[in-house]
From TrEMBL:
It comes from Micromonospora globispora. InterPro entries: MFS, MFS_dom, MFS_trans_sf, MFS_Transporters, Sugar_transporter_CS. GO terms for cellular component: plasma membrane. The chain crosses the membrane at residues 12-33, 53-74, 86-103, 109-130, 151-171, 177-195, 301-319, 325-348, 392-410. The keyword tRNA-binding does not apply. This is MFS transporter.
Amino acid sequence: MTATPVGPRLGLRANAAQFLLLVVVNALVGGLLGTERTVLPLLGQREFHLTAYSAALTYIIAFGATKAVTNFFAGTLSDRYGRKPVLLAGWLVAIPVPLMLIWAPTWGWVVAANVLLGVNQGLAWSTTVIMKIDLVGPRRRGLAMGLNEAAGYLAVAATALATGALAAHYGLRPAPFLLGAAYVAVGLGLSSLLVRETRGHAHHEAATHQVVDGAHQGDLTTRQVFTLVSWREPALSSASQAGLVNNLNDGLAWGLFPVLFAAAGLSLPRIGVLAALYPAFWGLGQIITGPLSDRFGRKPFIVVGMLTQAVALGLIAGARSFGLWAAAAVLLGAGTAMVYPTLLAAIGDVAHPVWRARAVGIYRLWRDGGFAVGALLAGFLADVIGIRGATWVVAALTAASGLLVAGRMYETHRGARRRAVDRPVGSV
């Protein structure tokens, strides 16, 4: 008698070892990004003598545009060829990045390095997101995304702090970027030797998947998924615009806030502290907000988080002291922590497992396109009305995004929907 094959087990406990390994891998992905947060804006100003803010932000435009497009292909490729090959490709592309930043003779080399960094982040970070969603199944997506994004952004914070200290003692180059080279070596080694393919988990879940009311079952063309995520499906498209605006204000924070703090006379270690506080509270907060969204729903966290970010940006625009900037950075990180894992969890709630990887990739296309849009907008506005004026405008856009989610998005988490007895399930 032949035994009936048993599919892979879903759930955090059943896949704990592989899940924790992917958390570590994503921390390394985030750490590579963190090598730039403190040092690169000052490098452009001090070594390459860039005076126009729009010119100085070209590396963020290159990074954001490349990462956004790569996110799209990461989802499609991981559906077609599997998750692990895409993850490995992301690490291979990253190998030259720290070396190019160390030896860059012109700003063009820095921009080119950030094109490669965008490919790395789009392939590797997207794939760790998809793999964790595959492993945990539908019940604990908020927790999974909270842990994933917490690992990535805590690594960004720790590396921003470390590179600020290294730059203060050893100069802007090469010491801070040697840390990035070590991250690439360890990340590639772990991904090659220990990470296992998870596409089978998604196929197993697809057999018993229960969709949110109004969502689409079965396989869809990539064009159909794109229209759903971009504008047609209320929850998916609301998440996409909120993600774009979230990273728009992060592009502003990454590219211009260190310059604002330096102009106020802050030392490199203090700038490093401010550059680290925001992603640190962003990362730590997600450990709390992700699981809470599994209990209380996605929509409240997204709305409140966007409005909290708007308040924090207004405080940064008006502040003139280290203490107030530190408080605003903490508030900005807390607001982002409410939004970041919750948006990804909402995409996972609505998208069918058969096309979920593509939905995640398209959402991340819009979200990380916010880096490029933010750098373009912030650079133009900063040249015209100054960094503080640009920050006020972005604060207003962030508040408007939160209000749009409040008006258009429905609750996507099934448990929260069942508990919301005062409103019809599936109402928009």
